Structures are given as structure tokens and as C-alpha cells.
Amino acid sequence: MRSLRALVIDNDPEALAATEALLNRAGFDTEAMSLGYEALALAKKQRVNIVCCSDNMLDIGAIEFCSQVRALPQCDYVPVIILTKEDNSKILKQALLAGATDIFSQQDQQDLEVYSKRIAERDARQLSGRVLFIEDSQVLQEIIIDLLTDMGLDVESYTHAEGAWEAFKTGQYDLVITDIMLEGTMSGISLVRKMNRYQSEFGPVPIIATSGFDNASRKIELFHLGVNDYVAKPIVREELRQRVFNHIVSYQQMLELRSQQASLHSLAMLDELTQLFNRHALREFSGKYFSEAQRFHRPLSMAIIDIDHFKLINETYGYATGDKVLAELGAWLKRFVRVEDMVARWASEEFVFLFPDCDTERAVALLERVQKRLEQYQPAGVLVTISVGVATFHDKEKHQLNEMFELADSAMYQSKMAGRNCITVYREEETVEAGSESLD
Q: What is the span of the domain harbouring residue 232?
């Protein structure tokens, strides 16, 4: 963390000590002195983050002191506070015109303490992130890079838009700062246009445009192109610092919000134990499978798998092992099926498959391989067999998830009645055990 320096001037030792203690509590390293000119000499040599002076210094008036502080280039944007013992309304206007930031009463230091803590938090804050910076002036590039790195940012800089564009397509950035007038065949305007057309999984990266042409029409044109902010040259360091901070914080908060939303969506759609889709996800996504099957005249098969004697597995090996069987089986099933297939955990030991563009025979062939390999796999070291029911949707039918589930569930129940560890296919006329002659 950067060290923060405060300058306090007061000829009253008691008031000086009180203000010094207040600023120390806020997080500043404080230089306390009784003379204004002595403080001005120090401010010329050292960087300070806040200046607090009494309104009755012995060697210089507070108004003149503020004017001289503001004349120092390094103190252009440093808060200068005047501390008064009496009514401050008489000097308020003069003080503000002379460059004072605010006036506080020494009788009630609570307001000053709140204000100084806010200044300390603002000046001590550090960012993390990557900035893509395009500027063809070497001198200005060095100045801005120094500012950005001082804020804790990693900077990747270019003098030409062409190189920056290639970097943008392959890198992940939190902010882009680009000059509009650049050397080379691509202008900054063309670069901005390309960046805003480019679809990134991380969302639109904020862009700050810089230009020596500070006119309203140019700004409006850039905002129409999708620029988030505009900074006119010559660039004021503190102005750019605050704009950079605001845009990066907002962008990173947006990314964090998206990540949280994705996590919540994942929690809502995934079964915690098996990491397969859950019943809610199956209901959510099944409509697409059915509509595509009907639209493109393709078969859609559903299979319901039920682990045989799962209650006995829990009683024999314990519920922890039962959970492990489910978790390992879920991971195994997900690896076994095709990319386009969907597998979900429907209930305790019951799983549902959707096989798009897959007729009954192909679905049965796939499930028979699952049966055989499952006996060898033995999740959690337990021999597991399954009873399976299969139903197939054809485009001439109007079945949806609930109706299809009832058909496959009926076939699965027939597998249980037939002695388990078998596959039964639902037919309109009858349910048929896979492998029988009537399947052909």
C-alpha cells in the first residue's frame, strides 16, 4: 500500500496535536508545523495527499496560503482544508475562490475525520487488471503508463492500432485507452469500431478515447461508435486516474455479477451429488429437443434408468457408499453418452436420458453397451445393475416430456417386473423386452 502524507499547520499546539492525531487515525503519515511558509517549502519537496491549515497562522493568511499551495504543480488536485475556530461563513467564498477545497470547524472534528478517512481510502486504493493502451506519442505513453502502473494495473501498450487489434482479439482486458489519431493504416476510430463489433465472452470492454480535438461533434461521434468515455488532451493525470478507476471497477463488478449469476444458474440446474442436470434442467431444456425432432422429422428417444436394489446397497454398505455410487455413476454416464445427448438425475436412484436423432434400435444398442460396461465398472467398488425403459418420439406424434416420461417409466417398470437388469421398449400395442423377436 502507498504511504499517505498529510500536512497540518496551526500555531495552537493543542489544536495542532488534535488534528495530527485525527489524520493519523485516518491512515496518514502527518507532518505537523506551526508556520505556513515552512509548510509551503515542504510541499515543494514532498508529495502530500491532504493539507489542513488554521485560519489564523502567524506568518501568512489562510487565503494567501491556499493560493500559493494551488500554484504548486504537484498540489493542483490535493485537498486543501481550512480549519476555523469561529463562524466560517465570512471567509468561505474567498477561500473557495483561492483554491480551498472546504472549511471545517475545529470545534466539531467529526466531519473532518469522516472526510479525511474518505480521502485516505481514495488515495490508498489499488486496482488489479489489464489495460490495453494505444498512443503514438512516446512521451505521453510513458506518462500514462507510469500513472496506470502506480494504480496497480498491468499495461500492454502499442503505438499502432493494427498490433493493438491483434492483441485485443486474443487477450482479456479490463479497459482500453486509445488515441483517436494514430499512425498507420488503421485509425483509432476504426479500432473502436472493430472492438465494439467483436463479441467477447466477457462482455463489452470499456473504452476511453483520447484526442486533442476537444469539440462536441467529435465526442458525440465517438459515443455513437460505442466509446464509454472521452478525455481531451492535454490529459490531466488526476482526471484520468478517476475515470480509469470508475470504469475498471464497474466492469469488474459486472463480471463478478455475471459469474454469480452463472453460479446460481448452475446450482439451479445441476444435481449437487452427481453434477448431472437435475429435474428442473430436464424440464427447462427438453422443449428444444422435442421441437427440433418435430421440425426436422427426426426420432427422439428417452430412456429411464433405475439402479436395481439401491435400498439394499444403502443398507449393506452404508449411505455414504450409496452416495458415492451415485456420484461415480453420474460422472461415468456423462462420459459415456454422446455430446448431443442429455442425461439427468430424476430422483434418488433414477436417471433420464434424451437421445436426439436416435431411433429405438440405436438407443437400445447404446443402452446394452452401458449395461455390460457398468458391470465391469462397479462404481465405488459395488456391483451395480440397472433396469431400463425406452420410449421413442416420432414427428407425427405430439408427445412432450411428461407423456414421454410416462411411457418410458412404464417400460422401466416392466423391466423391474421381468426380473431387473434388462431393457424394455414401450410400443403402442405392448411393451417389449429388448432382445425378443418382436423388437425386430
A: 130-261
User: In this structure, which amino acid lies at residue 314?
Assistant: N
Ramachandran bin of 230, using left for φ above 0, alpha for ψ from -120 to 50, beta for the remaining angles: beta
**Amino acid code (one letter) for 61:** G
The answer to which of 282-296, 308-322, 383-397, 426-440 has the lowest mean pLDDT is 426-440
Long-range contacts of 430-435 (CB under 8 A, 24+ apart): 434/364, 434/367, 434/368, 434/390
Nearest-angstrom CA–CA distance, 291 and 97 = 71
Q: Is residue 270 part of a domain?
A: no
34 domain-assigned: yes
Instruction: Kindly state whether residue 269 falls inside one of the protein's structural domains.
Output: no
- pTM exceeds 0.70, yes or no: no
Q: pLDDT digit string (tens) for 392-429?
A: 987 666 668 899 999 999 999 999 999 999 999 998 65
CB 83 within 8 A of CB 52: yes
Q: Is the peptide bond before 234 cis (omega within 30 degrees of 0)?
A: yes
Name the packing angle between helices 161-170 and 188-197 (round to 10°): 20
Rg, C-alpha atoms of the chain: 36
